[in-house]
Design goal:
With 205 residues, the protein is mainly α. It has helices at residues 7-20, 25-32, 36-43, 51-59, 65-68, 77-85, 94-108, 115-152, 157-190; strands spanning 2-3, 74-75. Strands 1-2 form a two-stranded antiparallel sheet.
């Protein structure tokens, strides 16, 4: 696991110190010997600054990098891979496919780089497809009961078997789609690429 600078927290601290000490962005840039754009980019967390730049700027306020940098987040690809694969709990019970990644996400969302984004996308995807699973299976079962029993009363063995096979086909189709998405995104995460879960409804933002 590698520690990573939290650019957003750094930008907030820089702006707070600058205003507290009565510096404009221009004045701070001139005093530190850096460009105005560098100060602006740091405060807006538009890029991760070089360590020597951080030192030069914060020395103006008598601060060392360790006093201003947030080292709470770490990089841990193994954790991201494990969290993503936990979505396969969907194959046991779709509800677990939501709960397990959600618990893993919440427990480390502020500690590991990338957990917040991946967790949000994965859980939204799982909620979407758990809803599709339960609604789809139940709607089909209800339709069958209504049409077969309330309609023409045909509950012959062949009709029952057709219902069972169709129901199983719906379930397997959803299972295959969800598991393939998880496996594909696990591959992308392992390659250092962004996850691409689609389609999903963004219940959690």
């Amino acid at each position: 696991m590698n520690k990573k600078m939290d650019s957003k927290a750094l930008g907030v601290k820089l702006k707070t110190l600058r205003l507290k000490n009565g510096f404009s962005q221009d004045q701070l840039a001139e005093s530190a010997g850096v460009s105005l754009r560098t100060v602006q980019r740091m405060e807006n967390a538009e890029a991760t600054p070089r360590m020597d730049t951080v030192k030069r700027i914060f020395q103006i306020f008598g601060k060392s990098p360790d006093e201003v940098l947030d080292w709470t987040q770490t990089e841990d690809k193994g954790y991201l891979l494990g969290m993503n694969l936990s979505g396969l709990a969907f194959l046991l019970i779709p509800f677990l496919g939501v709960v397990v990644p959600l618990v893993i996400w919440i427990s480390r969302k502020d500690k590991i780089v990338g957990v917040s984004e991946l967790g949000r996308c994965l859980v939204n995807f799982q909620i979407t497809w758990a809803a599709i699973y339960y609604l789809g299976v139940n709607l089909y079962s209800w339709s069958y009961n209504y049409l077969s029993i309330a309609g023409n009363g045909d509950i012959s063995p062949s009709n029952v078997m057709a219902f069972a096979w169709t129901r199983m086909g719906i379930i397997l189709t959803i299972y295959i789609f969800v598991s393939s998405q998880i496996i594909w995104n696990t591959y992308r995460i392992n390659k250092g690429l962004n996850n691409k879960y689609f389609p999903k409804i963004n219940f959690l933002r």
